[in-house]
Amino acid sequence: MRSATSSRRSASTWRRSPPTSPRAAHDVIAASHKEFDRFEAFGVPTFVVNDDATFVRYMSEPSDDPAASVGLMTTLLAMMTNRVDLNEFKHTQLPR
After folding, report:
1. What is the structure's pLDDT at 13?
2. Terminal Cα distance for the chain, rounded
3. Which residues constitute the domain of residue 32?
4. What is the number of structural domains in the chain?
5. What is the pTM of this model?
6. Chain segment 31-85, per-residue pLDDT in tens
7. What are φ and ψ of residue 14, in 5° steps?
8. Does residue 93 sit within a domain?
9. Which helix (H) or strand (E) holds 78?
10. Are residues 41 and 3 in contact, defined by beta-carbon separation less than 8 angstroms?
11. Which of 21, 57, 59, 73 has the most CB atoms around it within 10 Å of its CB?
12. pLDDT at position 19
């Protein structure tokens, strides 16, 4: 399972050796973009699960509760993994 923010290879490389110059940082970003170009990903956050990209739009800021964030990610990843037939889920009105 991978997320579009980084692949296993890119993430482990980033953790081991952070960019040491602006050019190195540019190269990391360019390589990541090229790697995910095949998914036609178009926003952040975009998750890649089982070689399938999914864009997720959050409507509220994250809370200070780490368990809530973990719960949200667990739910999203489960939907992306187990409900591949669900293509779009969108409320017709924004909460006011």
Report:
1. 46
2. 35
3. 2-82
4. 1
5. 0.57
6. 877 877 888 876 678 888 888 888 888 888 888 999 999 999 999 999 999 998 8
7. -60, -45
8. no
9. helix 66-82
10. no
11. 73
12. 61
Sheet holding 46-49, edge to edge: 2-3, 46-49, 52-55
How confident is the model at residue 82, as a pLDDT? 92
CA dist 54 and 44 (Å) reads 10
Q: CA–CA separation, 29 vs 50, rounded Å?
A: 22
Question: Residue 74 and residue 86: Cα distance in Å, rounded?
Answer: 17
Whole-number Å distance between alpha carbons of 42 and 46: 8
Report if residue 76 sits inside a domain. Answer: yes
Angle formed at CA 90 by CA 86 and CA 92, multiple of 5 degrees: 145
What is the rounded distance in angstroms from the CA atom of residue 36 to the CA atom of residue 43?
11
User: Per the domain annotation, does 96 fall within a domain?
Assistant: no
In a domain, 92, yes or no: no
